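Model it.
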Amino acid sequence: METKKVNSGSSRRQFLTKQLPAGAFMCMGCKSLLSSSASFMNPQEVARGAKYLTNSGMTTEDVLRFTLNKCVPVYKKLGGIIGNEKFIEMLKEASAEKGADSMKSLARGKPGEMKAFTDHMKKMLSTPPYDKAIPYEITEESDKVFEIKYTGCLIAKLYREMDAAEIGFAIDCSPWDRMIKAFNSKMAEKNIKNPLKGDDVCIQRFTLET
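Modeled.
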């Protein structure tokens, strides 16, 4: 079987969107899908009580573990085929691009101010599955700084259990600086501590230059 090289940014993007297995690529947004599943519900199916809309009896951990158990082994296999270092960089690039697109959509029609961003973060963290999976406390909040400490992260815990901390960091943590700059080019993010890097907590600090 012929192996095609991925050289340019455009060909890399084409590889990620067209050649990367669909199930693996979709997993990059699996938690977003979990938290917004209602938007995919057909009103007629809701009305007639489709079975897949009923409570499955799974906990937040069960759902996240099920999702990652489907995706992470595929990522590891692809890393072995492509080369782990190269594949991790590709995951970072794809995740950052996807996250930046989401932030651009959020910024449309809204001022790129710290308050608009912090309101979004608070809303996101109060909805499933984040509200059960990522307990947090705000350690600093002003019109120029937003610092948040995640006192636990179920997602990081599961990645570490699967010996996939590097994959988890590439998908969920590394994109944040580009994401926040897509919201406001004068904003920056610093990940002070991270469980996927061996720390006991995760601390993110967002700042706005004036």
